[in-house]
Write a structure and sequence with these properties.
The complex is a heterodimer. By secondary structure, chain A is mainly beta. Chain A has helices spanning about 30-35, 90-95; strands at about 5-15, 15-20, 25-30, 65-70, 75-80, 90. In chain B, helix 3 (about 75-90) crosses helix 11 and helix 5 packs parallel to helix 6. Chain B is about 35% helix and about 20% strand. The chains are: A mainly beta, B alpha/beta.
Chain lengths: ~100, ~325
Amino acid sequence: MSEQARVKQIWQQDDRTLAIQWTDGKKSLFDVVELRRQCRCAHCVDEVTREIKLNPDSVAESLRPLRIESVGRYALTIQFSDGHKTGIYPFERLREIG
Amino acid sequence: MNFFKRMQDKIAGKGQSQSQAPSPELDQEVAQRAATSISPLAPPIAKATPKQMPKTGTLEAVRHLIAVGSGKGGVGKSTVALNLALALQKLGKKVGLVDADVYGPSQQHMTRAARPQMLEGELIEPPLVEGVKVISVAMFAAAGQAQMLRGPMAAQVLKQFLTQVAWGELDYLVIDLPPGTGDIQLTLAQSVPLSGAIIVTTPQELSLIDVRKAVSMFQTLNVPLLGVIENMSYFVCDQCTKKHYLFGQGGGQKIATEYGTNLLAEIPLDPRIGEASDSGRPAVTHFPQSDIAKTYLTVADRLLAQHILQRESDGALGYFVLEWKKL
C-alpha cells in the first residue's frame, strides 16, 4: 500500500499565502481566502446532495486564518477569522487544488 | 461532568439526577487546546514545527499508537489486541491497551483488571495486567449495564481514554477498535496520528467484505497498514493432527496481497484459548509454551522490525499547529 504524502513543513509565506512542503518533495502554495471558499464541510456543502451552499462572494477578501492544526495523519483544519472552523482539508485534496 | 466520575457515581448509586445530555467537555477541550497556543515564532513568517500533542493530552510520552481493527465483528480483535500487547510487553516494551469498544467492551472480562484509580486533576491511573496498562469502559460500569450512548458521546469516551488516562511513557499503545467504520474509528484517526493499523480477519469471504471497508477507511485516513492477522484459520482436533479449515482457506493472505501488506500470522481455533479468555488468562502469559503464544511473540517481533515503527518519521510533521500572523 502506497502511503499518501504528508506535510514535511508548513508555513505562512506572506499575508494571505499558506505554503506546504510535502514529504515527496512537492511544494504547494494556497491562497487562504480561496481555501475558505473551497471548504467542503457540512455547513458549506449539503451532505446528501453535495450541493455547494457557500456563496463564494460572501467570503471577504480580508478574511484570514487564525490557526491551522493537523487532523490525524491525513488532513488539516483551519480556524478562520470569520469564526468558521469546521472544515477539514485532507492532504490528498490539498495536493489537488494546490 | 467528567464521564468517568459520572460512571463511577452511577455504580455507587450517587448522582442519579445527572443528566445524560451531551456534556460541554468537547468544547472545553477544544477551547483548552486553543489556549495551549504555541509560543510566538520568529516573525515575520510563522512556521509550524513538529509538536507533541497538546498539553491537555496524556500521550506526550507514547511513541506509537497502533490500532487493531477489522470492520467485522466477532473475528477476535480483542483477543488478538490483548495477546499482542502482552507479547510486545514480553519483548521488553512498555505497552498500554485501550479497549475502544464502548458498546461491547471485552478487555475487562478477558483480563480481570482491577478498577482504575482517580488521580489528582481528573486523571485516571490505568490498572496493570501482566505489566500492560489497560483501560476499558467496562471498568466504569456495573456488569451487564449497557452503555446507551449516541455516537458523539461514545467518541467522547474514547477521547477521554486518550487524554485523561495517565499513560506515562509507553513504546506502544494498542487500540482495540470496535467493528465498523463509524464515530469511534473516525474520532481516533482524527485525534491522534496513528502509527499504523493491524487488520484482523477470519478466512471466509463474508469477513473479507467488511475488512475491505475497514482497510479503505484506513487508507482514506492515511493510516499505514502494518499487516493482517488471520484468526480462526483452522482447527486441530485432539484425536488427529489434521488441520480442519472450518471457514475456508487463504482469506488473510488474499487481503494482504490485495493491499500490498504482510500476512503476519494464521492463528488456529483452540478451545483452550476461548476458555482461557473467558477466565481472564490470556494465552501469551498463561500458556507461554502453546503454539498460539509463540505465534503472538513472532508477530510482535515482526512488528518491531517493521520499518514504519522503527523510523521516527519520514520527515513528516506528526501533530502541528500554525498560528497565522498579521503582516
